[in-house]
Structure formats: C-alpha cells, structure tokens
C-alpha cells in the first residue's frame, strides 16, 4: 500500500476537517435512514406482513426480535471491518458500508410477504437484516476515526459529533418518510406502501459513492503507515494493549438502549390497544425530538472540548435513566402534550449529551494503529445488547405489553454500566491526536503540547 508520508504532528490540509465532518454527517444520515426505517416498520408493519396475524402479541415480539438480529451481526462485522480499516484505511470502509446498507435495504422492500411464500418470508427478512447489521458495524467507527483524525486537536469533540448528528438526521428523515406512509389506508399500507421507504435507499448508494470517494485519507493514518507501517493483526494489539478500554467502550455503548427503547418499544407500546395513541402523532414525537437533538449534539460536544468528555457523558447516561421514566409514564397517560414534552427532554436534550460526545470519548481511548478496530468492536458488542433490549422490553412488559414501569427500570439499569465506564476512564480532551492511546502521555494545558 502506498501512502504519502506526513510529518509527525502535521495538521490536516485546510478544509479537510470540515470536508471529513460533512462526509461523515451525510453518509451517516443516509445510512441510518435505512437502519431506522426498519425500526419503524418492525414496530408498525412487519408483525402483520411477515408474521402470524392470529397471535398479535407473538407477532410483535418476533418482529422486534428481527430488529435485534442486526445488532447480533454487528460484532462479527466489527471484527472484519475493523481489521480491514486499520490495515487499508478509513475511506475504503466508509464507501463499502454505505453501498452494502443501500443494497440490503432496497432488497427488504422487494421481499415477498408471509401470505405469498410462508415462513420463507421472515427468513429472507432476517438475512437482509444481518447485512444491515454488518454494514452499520463499520460505518460509525470508520466515520468517527476519519473525523477525529482530521480534526484540530482542541475541537475533536465538535467535529466527531457530526457523525452522530448525521445519525439523528437519518432517523429524522426516516420518521418524516414514514409519516405519510403510516397515514395510508390499511390495505394500501400493508400491500405496497411500506415498501416505498425501503426502495428509496437506491439513492443511498449513489449519494454515498459521490460524497465519499473524493475524501482524503487521514493524516494520522498516513503518518502511521509511512513511518511505522500498519499493524498486521490489529485485534492482537487491541487485546494486548487496550483490553480495559474495549471493556469500557462495551459498557458505555449500553447507553444506546435508551435510543432503541425510545425509537422502537415505546412506539409499539404507545400505538397498542393498551394506550391507543395514533401512529402519526407518535412518529411526530420522534421527529421533533430528533430536530432538537440535531442542535443539542454539537452543543454538548463543544462543551466537552472545554470541560472534558467524562462529565458530559455522565450527564447523558445518568440523566437518561431518569428521563426515560418520565417519558414512558407520559406515554402511559396517553397525554399528547406530556408525551411531546418528555420525549424531547429525554431523547432530544439529555440523551444527546452521551450520544454527542461518545465518538470523541471512545475514539480517544485508542492509538491510531487500532482505533477503528477498538471503536468498532467495543461499540458493536455494546450495541448488540442495546438492540436486543427491545426484545427483552417486550417480554418484561408482560402478556398485555403495558407494564411500562418495568421497562423503565430495565432501561435505567442499562444506564449504570455506562456511568461506571465513564467514571473509570481517563480524560483525554487535551491530549494531542498523535499521542492518543499512549499510556505514558500526560495531558497538558494546551492541546498542541504533550509531555512524555
């Protein structure tokens, strides 16, 4: 592999940090549009299209389980794509993952239903969902590494937050697309209407190729490859030198359970017979919360550049445990004003603190030579548990699916490991980029200085 040499400590070329952040934002928005339309469909459509309608509760449980299947595939994808990304570069993974997500999502829109092919229908659905999970495993880690390694040292929090702002943008777009679809007459919705958002993913592959193919490789990776060479087996180095940080990232990533419970289980609960809220209204709750999150994420990330990653992450993790109680209680009352208010507070404001800062917080734990592997493997194992949190929540909610307090307690318990992980982690917001992951580095007052 031929990589141009870059002097140690050299900054990214002018304009590259902004270009990398924009590519991460748009790519993540497009990719997670695909990922989140599946979540909406799994809660609202798939129980009737792919599973046995005679037992609605079981059909919903199985449909939500297919949502978690992609999270189970993520650790496998992280092992493979993390290895490739630390050997061949961040850019190649960013392009590949976007193309794979676009293809697998388009295929979901083409699948036959249970009435047409029987049990083969959910089997094909699961296979496509696995491909989505493999793609997502490499997307965020590669985009995070790309933006972090291009960013100015004192603004890594702000620039890496664009990846998660893009994720929220994708979720917002998915919600807005599903609002008119969910408003279709039942017959049209279940026959062809639900397929339209999945077919639109063709644009993902085209846009992703155009946006990301011209992006430069990061100075940090180029420097590593030119001066020391790439690591042949990143996983071995990761286990030997960064095992504690991988465990911290796994524990920290469990905070994503707040997102999956909010996005999928609460939506299914609110629109069930137990509460009876409308699909359209609940989709607008998610849309509004995501609009607020788009503004909150970079603000929290900028604050972390000033006061550190740990305190901001702790606000998000601990605060989410409390505000999820408020949100699920509000849903149980069926009061639209309360649901909108608490939904925005929980998901739009408080959860955004943890969500906006983790790209920098996790990425700064690892050295360049294993950064993509470390972030990918750590987050995807944690996200796998978060994905199946929806399935456990459906079981915990009881036979009628209305025990919201048990689900709230379950979600709060999943916020405890992230708090512990943050309390035990090092503060890295003032460590120079080239010194990240080095055990002998002492952070200094200025981001361009380091004492070894």
Automatic annotation (TrEMBL):
CDD domains per record: MFS_ShiA_like (cd17369)
InterPro entries in UniProt: MFS_dom, MFS_sugar_transport-like, MFS_trans_sf
PANTHER family the UniProt entry points to: SHIKIMATE TRANSPORTER
Annotated Gene3D superfamilies: MFS general substrate transporter like domains
UniProtKB keywords: Cell membrane, Membrane, Transmembrane, Transmembrane helix, Transport
Record domain Major facilitator superfamily (MFS) profile: where: 20-430
PROSITE patterns referenced in this protein's UniProt entry, alphabetically: MFS (PS50850)
Membrane topology: Multi-pass membrane protein
Pfam families: Sugar_tr
Ranges that cross the membrane: 32-51, 57-81, 93-114, 192-211, 246-269, 281-300, 312-330, 336-362, 374-398, 404-423
Protein's UniProt name: MFS transporter
Origin: domain of life: Bacteria
Localization of this protein: Cell membrane
SUPFAM superfamilies in the record: MFS general substrate transporter
Coiled-coil ranges from the UniProt annotation: none
